[in-house]
Amino acid sequence: MGAAMVVFVLVFLLGGWPLGEGCWEQEKIGLLQLKPFFNYHNALHNWVDVEGKESSHCCRWERVECDAISGRVIRLYLWKEYSDVAQDSENLRQPWYLNASLFLPFEELKSLDLSEHQIAGCLDNEGFEKLWGKLDKLEHLFLSDNQFNNSILSSLIEFSSLKSLELSFNNLTKFIYTDELNKLINLEELSLWGNDIESFGSFGGILQT
Asked: Per-residue b/e over 66-98, b at no fewer than 16 CB within 10 Å?
């Protein structure tokens, strides 16, 4: 058996071969597991898996962007749109807790937007720490308009690839100890608007917006 065939067999057995025109099996399964938590007003209506249908290619789904060559998911736009927020104004969703482990399949992810979802934190032992060393290409993380408290900062300190972190309009309060963020060596933009922060230390190289 040639080397190329060995590689093919190993990748296939690990469930990592792209389906058809570029939809990785483990990532499609991961997206379908995420759908119930972010499908406001049927926003993810085309996230369906029908055998033999072109619509089953997850790279063609709403709010999903894949790499043109590898077919891996590189961006997830799961924010709640303004129209969804307006429709929910009379029946606001109660705060809820995220299982961050659901994002483990997306190892090539560069940008993740979870804005405006009333997320109050993560389930016990299922926080963003679970993604340390896994999502090591993540550059942009948008968590604005949720209900995260100060503990969110310590759960993100190992994402050294981050270039921008959006935490505006959450429940960050009092004192922010920025020493926790020193490991974010590539961070260029940190947004903390709309929080009840009294003071925080300065740290070089970070643009506060």
From this structure: beeeebbbbbbbbbbeeeeeeeeeeeeeeeeeb
Of residues 129, 134, 140, 116, the one with CA closest to residue 190: 140
CA distance 129 to 37: 20
pLDDT tens-digit readout, 28-87 = 999 999 999 999 889 999 999 877 565 678 999 999 999 999 999 999 999 986 444 445
Domain count, the chain: 1
Looking at the DSSP bridge assignments, the partners of residue 199 are: 175
Q: Residue 75 corresponds to which tokens in the numbers above? A: 């961006």
Domain span at residue 120 reads: 3-208
CA distance to 101, 127, 167, per residue, from 200 (Å): 30, 24, 14
Give residue 57's region: left, alpha or beta (phi > 0; psi -120 to 50).
beta
Q: Which two tokens stand for residue 135?
A: 């999502």
CATH number for 67: 3.80.10.10
pLDDT tens figures, 161-195? 999 999 999 999 988 877 778 889 999 999 999 99
78, 108, 137 from 133: Cα distances, Å: 22, 12, 9
The Cα–Cα gap between 63 and 57 comes to 13
